[in-house]
Amino acid sequence: xxxxxxxxxxxxxxxxxxxxxxxxxxxxxxxxxxxxxxxxxxxxxxxxxxxxxxxxxxxxxxxxxxxxxxxxxxxxxxxxxxxxxxxxxxxxxxxxxxxxxxxxxxxxxxxxxxxxxxxxxxxxxxxxxxxxxxxxxxxxxxxxxxxxxxxxxxxxxxxxxxxxxxxxxxxxxxxxxxxxxxxxxxxxx
Length: 189
Ligand SMILES: [Zn+2]
Hints:
- This protein is α/β, with parallel strands linked by helices.
- It has a single domain, classed as Divalent-metal-dependent TIM barrel enzymes (TIM Barrel).
- It has five helices and seven strands, in the order E-H-E-H-E-H-E-E-H-E-E-H.
- Helix 1 links the parallel strand 1 and strand 2.
- The chain is globular and about 50 Å long.
- The structure holds zinc ion.
- The site of zinc ion (ZN) has 4 residues, from loops.
């Protein structure tokens, strides 16, 4: 690799449409841009329309900013010990990823989650189960989940590389186990 120039970017607003973030990025000279794919403080937002997608793709081609990546809702907590909030988080993450996939974004940044006093091991297991559930729901998706490092404030997980490693390994193990089970099930037919 000969070009080592770092890519500089910013998180830009999608007020007025997802394509607006690209125009704002061009104004301040961004190489890359991060966006929310819906209002970050609300569980539900209206779906992206075909016009939204078309405007985004046209503006992307015009301004030449790439990659653009997504940032998930702040409300999502895959480590939550509360079953209702945990399931809601899985639904919201799947919705965020669907939006990213339609916009052809390469990745969605998520905060791994807070165990809320349930303990780190419990929280890590919940995160792995949540991610696995999302993977199972969205087969064939190209967009990736990108785990954000945290400062370890409160009970937030993801403040050591060891924890991030445990999340990645935990999901891989579960995906692999599922694959093994499916293979065995097919072989036994
Ligand atoms: Zn973040």
